[in-house]
């Protein structure tokens, strides 16, 4: 079993309402000097594939088919 | 402005229905050898605080007050 992480983040320019809300709420809570807040999603995946290159290919395939929407997301995969 | 990342993940033993659903859907899509899938949330925060130690303290304070629920989440902060 290999442990891998898939990182899915919004492309530049795509609205991130959750990030904006966190930003606003932090200010309301009294935190000062807050710049932009954005949210990123990580999927920690265990995969039964001893070959690292093939594991990475499988993970990229998962992103294309399920984990990321190529219109709005950038993704990256790494083996831990 | 410093760029920081706050990583919020579920504690061991806490149910992660989103991860479980991804796991099941990947299998239904034909992916084989999938072990556990779990989800992690990253908040990318820009902070106007030149002192790194104080920035980290502020970020931990944000976790305690808003970003994480100490009952179910572990969190970690890092300056990029």
Question: Notable features of this structure?
Answer:
homodimer; 80 residues; alpha+beta; Mth169, Chain: A; 2 helices; 35% helix; elongated
Find the CATH superfamily of chain A. Phosphoribosylformylglycinamidine synthase subunit PurS
CATH architecture of chain A: 2-Layer Sandwich
Mean pLDDT of chain A: 96
CATH topology of chain A: Mth169, Chain: A
Tell me which protein chains meet in the greatest interface and how many residues each side has: A-B, 33 and 33 residues
Question: What separation lies between the terminal Cα atoms of chain A?
Answer: 11 Å
- Unreliable stretches of chain A (pLDDT < 50, length at least 5) are none
Name the assembly state.
homodimer
Global structural class of chain A: alpha+beta
Count of helical regions of chain A: 2
Strand order of the largest sheet of chain A: 2-1-3
**Using DSSP, what is the number of strands of chain A?**
3
What's the CATH class of chain A, please? Alpha Beta
Percentage beta strand of chain A:
35-45%
Q: What's the order of the H and E elements of chain A?
A: EHEHE
Rough outline of chain A? elongated
Give structural notes.
2 copies of one chain form a homodimer. Chain A has about 80 residues and is of the alpha+beta class. The mean pLDDT of chain A is about 95. Chain A has a single domain (about 1-80), classed as Mth169, Chain: A (2-Layer Sandwich), CATH 3.30.1280.10. Chain A is elongated and about 50 Å long. The first copy, chain A, has helices at about 15-30, 50-65, and strands spanning about 1-10, 35-45, 75-80. The longest helix of chain A has 16 residues, at about 50-65. The interface between A and B is medium-sized, with 33 and 33 residues.
